[in-house]
Write a structure and sequence with these properties.
- The chain has four helices and two strands, in the order H-E-E-H-H-H.
- The protein is mainly alpha-helical.
- It has a two-stranded antiparallel ribbon with strand order 1-2.
Length: 133
């Protein structure tokens, strides 16, 4: 079995952290630039003074009243939470998620590279004296 010294392991982990950070942030920029903001499915249009405005069905008072009637205030809160979580995976919020996840993984790898454990997990046990027993 080939052993890798700590310095070589540290350099590899730091290189991997840099690659993940660059690729992740680059992907986030691409997603952010190409994210569309067009109307989605489930939209209705309200006409005010001859101008039509797209409105999501979930943002109407009728929808909120019906949700509260069927499930109470807790259903309204759960529905809002689920819609927020689902919105994270589309468009510009997805770019933010990609940037945060790649930054977190790169920071974790960098931390592991800077604070390595012992080369072999039982080195400290093998080298201690038996005077403490």
């Amino acid at each position: 079995m080939r052993t890798v010294d700590l310095e070589q392991r540290r350099k590899r982990l730091q290189w991997l952290a840099c690659c993940i950070l660059v690729i992740g942030l680059g992907s986030a920029v691409v997603v952010f630039v190409h994210a569309g903001g067009g109307p989605e499915a489930g939209m209705r249009y309200e006409v005010v003074d001859g101008v039509s405005y797209p409105t999501p069905l979930e943002d109407t008072k009728q929808f909120s009243r019906e949700m509260e009637l069927y499930g109470g205030k807790s259903l309204v809160l759960v529905d809002a939470l689920l819609r927020w979580f689902a919105a994270l995976w589309h468009g510009r919020p997805l770019a933010a998620v990609i940037a945060l996840v790649s930054t977190g993984i790169a920071a974790l790898l960098w931390y592991v590279a800077r604070h390595p454990g012992p080369a072999y997990p039982y080195d400290d046990v093998a080298n201690r004296d038996d005077a403490g027993r």
